[in-house]
Design goal:
Blueprint: E1 5-8, H1 25-31, E2 38-42, H2 49-62, E3 68-73, H3 113-124, E4 129-133, H4 134-141, E5 152-156, H5 169-180, E6 184-189, H6 203-206, E7 210-213, H7 216-221, E8 228-236, H8 244-247, E9 254-257, H9 270-281, E10 282-287, E11 294-298, E12 304-309, H10 316-324, E13 334-337, E14 352-356, H11 362-371, E15 381-389, H12 398-419, E16 424-427, E17 439-442, H13 451-470, H14 472-475, H15 484-499, H16 505-522, E18 526-528, H17 529-537, H18 540-547, H19 552-566, H20 572-578, E19 580-582, E20 585-586, H21 592-595, E21 598-602, E22 605-608, H22 614-617, H23 624-633, H24 636-648, H25 655-673, H26 684-702
Parallel strand pairs: 2-6, 2-7, 3-4, 3-5, 5-6, 8-15, 9-13, 9-14, 12-13, 14-15, 16-17
Antiparallel strand pairs: 1-8, 10-11, 11-12, 18-21, 19-20, 21-22
Helix pairs in contact: 1-2, 3-4, 12-13, 13-16, 15-16, 15-25, 18-19, 19-20, 25-26
């Protein structure tokens, strides 16, 4: 099945290069903001956040006069990322040194008296650095005077575990420390998305933080070996264990996450699932008593595979110890996990992350994808696949299955946005305006007018998109049931207003325009005419036709076929249209000036990027490609089930939506079909137009002052 997302990168090697202090690109960027009292570092897995924290913390201890550093991680296994590290040999002015007594990420209960007492002892003595879990921090905090945190640095790793919810003890702890102490805070996360609707920080608290954002694109584009990343999904019916071999490639270094036992995808017997998966692959030869690693002889060719079972609790600890010490690509072939091997787990040779069942947390999905996106010389491509249940109209849980499917797709859409390079949009005021490198000029675009809007667009855009894609009304748009302008002008606007209630109407519109433009541009095909022309000239069939002195007319008939091989997602009509760079000129005959142009596929047509207007962008469904792939990936019957489920829970009509439909869209419909829209039509949009007419008539009846001419 085709990937929903497929991204290629330039392999510049830049993200792994170091400066004279031994800092990589992201670490140097974070270190520049080392003087900030509150620092929020958003950077993807494998970008080096733990070492960035070491650089910043040592500067605060040695040069800024802070007295202590406390590093809190969500689970003990992640504490290893902050072990003692030699930094001076790479050019930095100090080493990261940690006394064993104050590494509290050790076996045992996180809230034990021993660990809590060790934390208290640390706060009273001259030791400088302590590592503990979030839980140990919470337990120790209960009996400490907040003033003890004065002049200390509190670093919280995997910061998305914090919540603004009043019931979140870690969130409340953070707020109290910010309010009642002089502590400095460094918050780090590879994903700022929570699985629920509760924000990580309250807006007034978040505004106190200096943001450092290092994008997935910056990280992956700067790799040396990894060239591409694919994100896709496959469907199954019945038990997933029967379909697992269709998507599990045991020639690839793989992490397989089976579903939670409480999910609809689980058989409710996780141990039996692991056994069934291994039996499907091959025969178990032995389990190493020291490491817990299983040797599996593959059915197909007898190859011996090394398998780690992280589902069975009795062998978890020794297996994890083995996994932490792996030195070679040959040390492991397949890891089967349930709740482990996600955030903070490092297996650089992993090529394939296969996840069974829908994951409700965008954070979890980002973390799982991050397991296979390390740069390593054994791979040029990384793959994430989500195996999810296909909705069945005869099943009582059809609504649940549809919702899970749509949410899984939106997670892929979000990752597509996160993984793509950012655009720099500017208003176009005159046809003579020229875009600078990296800029896209858009007529009718309202540029940010306030610092708050600029900050949102600089640091919050992916977080905002996560909120948009979690919204139930947006989910209803993916199967193609809702008009594009309604999505862009009404539904997305509502999410922005909810997330940023203090923005003015003009500021909301500025954010809305940007997020729509960015989403559409990252989700649409962009074509550089010069590059396309070069690709056509180098095609073997074109070269052969030229060598045979075939006529220009004959060669021109070949060009659309070649275009289809370059852009297989295009229809025949689109390939023919793209062959004409203007109404009279074939692409091969275009002038140099014409060949410098860039076109994008937008609203069913190819548009010169110099002619883009915000009104045209608002006519494009940002999720159109997801719908196209979905409709090709399931049967018409299943697609109808999905659309029917969405229709039964569709959004109520609002005045904003009704005005978008009437009069322009209704008038266009009547001109095309010679009749008014039918409220009983099988077509969703036609019914919505008919409902809009009735809605506005009723509104007029209730309020004769309404300025709507029916």
């Amino acid at each position: 099945m085709p990937d929903l997302v497929h991204v290629t990168y330039a392999q510049t090697g830049q993200s792994s290069q170091t400066n004279h202090f031994g800092m990589r690109e992201m670490q140097e960027k974070a270190f520049e903001e080392r003087d900030a009292q509150y620092l929020l570092l958003k950077a993807p897995p494998a970008s080096g956040k733990s070492r960035a924290l070491m650089f910043i913390a040592l500067d605060k201890l040695i040069k800024q006069g802070l007295k202590k550093v406390i590093v809190a991680v969500p689970e003990k296994s992640i504490g290893g990322s902050f072990r003692a590290t030699d930094l001076k040999s790479h050019g930095f002015f100090a080493n990261w040194e940690l006394h064993d007594n104050y590494n509290l990420c050790t076996p045992g209960n996180d809230g034990s008296k021993g660990k809590v007492q060790a934390f208290r002892n640390f706060m009273e003595n001259d030791e400088k650095i302590l590592i503990c879990t979030h839980a140990t921090l919470r337990f120790a905090f209960e009996d400490l005077d907040i003033s003890k945190f004065d002049n200390c640095l509190l670093a919280i790793d995997e910061f998305h575990h914090v919540s603004a919810d009043g019931d979140s003890k870690l969130g409340e702890l953070l707020r109290l420390i910010m309010e009642k102490s002089t502590a400095h805070i460094v918050a780090m996360t590879g994903s700022y998305f929570r699985g629920d609707s509760v924000p990580v920080l309250l807006p007034e608290d978040e505004e106190k933080f200096t943001n450092v954002t290092y994008s997935y694109y910056e990280q992956l584009n700067g790799y040396t070996y990894l060239k591409s990343l694919g994100i896709g999904y496959n469907f199954y019916q019945g038990n997933y264990t029967e379909a697992i071999l269709d998507v599990l490639d045991t020639d690839k270094k793989t992490i397989l996450h089976i579903p939670n036992v409480n999910s609809g995808e689980s058989t409710k017997d996780k141990y039996n699932e692991v056994g069934y998966i291994m039996d499907s692959i091959g025969d178990v030869l032995k389990e190493d008593s020291t490491t817990g690693i299983i040797s599996l002889k593959r059915h197909s060719d007898g190859k011996i595979l090394k398998v780690a079972d992280l589902v069975t609790e009795t062998s978890q600890e020794k297996t994890m110890n083995y996994l932490r010490d792996m030195k070679s690509v040959d040390d492991m072939d397949l890891i089967i996990a349930l709740g482990m091997a996600k955030e903070g787990f490092d297996w650089p040779w992993c090529e394939y992350a296969l996840t069974v069942g829908y994951r409700g947390s965008l954070t979890e999905i980002v973390q799982i994808i991050g397991r296979c996106t390390r740069d390593s010389d054994n791979k040029t491509h990384a793959q994430f696949t989500n195996l999810i249940a296909q909705p069945d109209a005869t099943n009582d849980d059809v609504k649940f299955a549809v919702n899970n499917m749509l949410k899984a797709i939106t997670a892929s859409l979000l990752m597509e946005q996160v993984l793509a390079p950012n655009f720099n949009f500017k208003p176009r005021f005159s046809p003579h305006d020229k875009a600078k490198p990296g800029e896209i000029l858009v007529r009718g675009y309202k540029a940010p007018s306030s610092k708050r809007v600029k900050d949102i667009l600089k640091s919050d855009i992916n977080d905002l998109k996560a909120n948009i894609l979690k919204d139930n009304s947006i989910l209803a748009a993916i199967p193609g049931n809702i008009d594009a302008e309604v999505i862009n002008k009404v539904l997305i606007k509502q999410v922005i207003e909810k997330k940023y209630p203090n923005l003015s109407e003009d500021e909301v519109e500025e954010v809305r325009q940007y997020v729509v433009m960015d989403s559409v541009m990252k989700n649409t095909l962009q074509i550089n005419v010069k590059d396309l022309k070069k690709a056509i000239e180098n095609d073997e069939s074109i070269k052969k036709a030229i060598a045979e002195n075939r006529s220009k007319e004959d060669i021109n008939t070949l060009i659309p076929k070649v275009i289809k091989t370059i852009y297989p997602e295009l229809s025949d009509d689109e390939a023919n249209a793209l062959n004409k760079v203007d109404i009279n000129t074939n692409i091969m005959d275009s002038s140099e000036a014409q060949a410098d142009k860039r076109f994008i596929r937008m609203a069913g047509q190819f548009v010169n990027i110099d002619d883009i207007h915000i009104d045209l962008i608002d006519q494009v469904n940002p999720f159109q490609r997801a719908y196209e792939i979905l409709s090709k990936s399931v049967t018409p019957k299943v697609l109808k089930v999905i659309q029917d489920v969405i229709e039964t829970s569709r959004i109520k009509m609002t005045e904003e939506e009704a005005i978008i439909y009437y009069p322009d869209k209704v008038a266009k419909f009547m001109k095309t079909f010679g009749r008014v829209p039918d409220i009983k039509s099988a077509d969703f949009n036609e019914r919505r137009m008919a409902e809009a007419i009735l809605f506005l008539k009723e509104l007029k009846r209730k309020n004769q002052a309404a300025n709507i001419n029916l």
